Structure formats: structure tokens, C-alpha cells
User: Fold this.
Amino acid sequence: MIVMKFGGTSVANFEAITRAIFIVGGRLDKKPVVVVSALSKVTDLLYRISDAAAARNVSETKTLMNELRSRHVNLASDLLEQSPALKESAVGRVNAICDSLEELVNAVCAVGELSDRNKAIIISNGELLSSTIICFTMNAKGIRTNFIDARQMMITSNEYLKGEPVIDEIVARVPGVIEEAYKGMDAVITQGFIGSNLAGEQTVLGRGGSDYSASLIGMAIDAERIEIWTDVDGVRSADPRTVENTKYIEKISFEEAAEMAHFGAKVLHPLTIEPAVKKNIPIYVLNSMNPSGKGTAILRSELIEDGVKSVSFKENIRVINIFSMKMINTSGFLRRVFEIFSESKVSVDLISTSEANISVTVDAAEKIDKVVEQLSEFADVIVDDDKSQVSVIGKNIVRLNGMLKKTFAPLKRTNVYMISQGASFVNISFVVDREELKDVVKDLHYHLFEVEEELEQF
Assistant:
């Protein structure tokens, strides 16, 4: 059994869904569990609907709801044009989902108050709509497909908008649900991103959580492989939108992929790797627009060569500098500092310490006012905004001769505010001014990946 996850761009429209179903049809012998995201841009639209409802903007809410409904009704009609009975059923189901959503949105609009619970319900409708349409279309094309509501098996904590998976419950439920749904079928389809808590209340995993859903399902059924279908030919050595001459990566380790995702690479959700590692399940990043392409295989470390694989970055971060003479020869100081971050649920990326100073980086979107206030009670705190983080990622890179020199040579005219080396020897990260980010990434990529290639041509 395999898990096949299709992202928003891979199910964006008539052509994309037709391609995706063709790809699934070629893997029926593997008993695919198909996991789908919302159609491209639909989750953004649902966030706009929730915001308009909270603001009691009746006209905008109605306009956006009409846009949502018409896009899905028209898509279902086009895909099922040759199957009138299924078309009628699919359009009816789409309208029923939209009617239920509209009823909730109107209620929120009436009171002007949007709870996290209701917001989770609203933004989850994209996956329910897309999976419904694709399920009907797969059946119309001769692939007997059963629909699974992910809320039956993807059990999370009570945090409605960023539910933490309850692994034991997921592992206990998923195999039975899928086995039952597969009876007499060629495939099953379910949703990424969405789940429910133990009380049966709707939750979501957070933005980009469909990859995570696929990996959790793969872990629970001990899948042969997990396929992440997107709109790029696997993993590249840098973001192609920033660097022109990026290199295709044939295979990387779980550890390298996790670091790349965590430190800014957009191909995978950062949490995707962990469930697959538990069962040593290979992950393949593939291009739905080029199904014959090899993509990138993410495998256990011993199958991967040493060396640099990518330059990743986070564009907008803050550096928080914490200075106190009380740190010197004092036990428990670091614990107290990080308890403050934990209590405010602020995630820290990089950490650098000296005798009387701690520097950490956080995403610029994090709310840090309370953290700064509490830290200031016993330390001097300086926050530097408009910074970017750049990470060089690869297996055993710190142990490679000349790698540090090669990494920092392009930075001789750049202000570097902080340097951090991963304990796993998989990454070297540093902080630069945001306005210099693109030049730094381009120069670094050139020195690490392109110079030797140019020399070989002479």
C-alpha cells in the first residue's frame, strides 16, 4: 500500500485533476491511499471569508461565498460532463457543503465574533470540496474509489487551528478505517490538513499540513512509500524563484530534508519527515506536471553521500539578544529563558550563547511582546528586526575539508549577525540583513554549486 498526496497546484483545475487521476490509475496495483489538498488558492479564499464574516461585512462575505461555490460547481460539472448521474450527485454534494458553510458564515457575520473552532470549520471546507469532486471523477473514469472523512481517523489535540496529532489514536484508527473503506474498491481518497479532537470537534493541522497528514497516514499503515506530488521536479539546491541555476537533487537523507523544510525550503511541510522516519518509509517528491520524471527520493542516511545539498533561507526573522551578568556561573538561567519562550508558545530557530549573552532567532510573525517584557525583568534585551536567515544544508558538511572557508568566502562584504552550527553536522546557518538576502543566497549558491562546474568546462 502507498500514500499519494496531491497539493493544491496538482488539483488546481480540470487539467490538473485529470493528470492526477491518470497518475493514480497507473498505481492501482499498489493500493493507493490518495490524500488531497484544497484546490489552489481556495484555502486563502476561505481565510478571506472567515475574516469578512468576523468583520460583519455581509456583501463581501456573500461575494466570496459565491466565488467559492461557482468555482467548485463549475469544476464538478466540467469533469463529469460525460456522466450525468454522477455529475448531478457531485454538484448536489458540493452545494450541500457550501450551504452548510454559508449557514455558519452567516451566523458568524450576524454576531461579528469568530472563534477558533468556527474558523477551523470554515477553512477546512476546501479539502472536503476537492476530495468530493475528485472522488466522483475517479469513479466516473472507472477507478472504484471510496471516500474517507479524515476526521474519523486524524485525531489531534484541542487546539482548533494548530492541532497536534495524537499519534496513538491515529495509529489505532487509520488501518481499520482504510481497510474497511477499501473493500471492493480500487482506491480510497481522503483529505489532508483536517482532523478532529477526541470530542469529535473539527480541527486543522496548520497551513501546509496536508503533507503531514499523508506522512502520518503512511506511518499508521506502514506504507511502502509516500509520494508528495507537487508542481516542481523534486527538490532543488535552492529556491528557483531566487536562484537561476539551481541543481536537481536525486536523493537526500531524512535529516537533510527535515533541515531544508525547517529552514525555509517550500517543497515539504517541516513536520512531514518525522512520521516517515519512525517506520523508515521512503518519501518521493514528484512533479504531477511531469509524471515520468524521477523526482527526489528521501531515504535513510546511510544511502546518501556526504556533501552540500542546498542553500535554504527564511526571509523575515528577528534576532533577540539577551544579555545578563547573572548568566555567569549560574545554573538554571538558560532554563528560565527558554521557559519564557515556551510559555508564550514562541518557536526558536537558531541559538547562540556566550558567557553573558544569548542570541536567538524567531520568525517575524511570532508575537514576542510578552516574551521581551518577561526577559527584561532580569536581563537587557535588544530585538533586531529586518533580518534573514541563510542555511547551508548537507550531510556531514562541517567535517568536509574547506567547507567553512567555502561557505563564508562570499560573505566578506556582508554583515553577519549570528552563526549557528547544527549539532547533527547537517547545517550551518547565519543571519544577515534582509535587504542583502537575495545577493547572499545567489553568491553562496554560485560558490558552492557552480564554480567547480564552470572550471570543469575549461
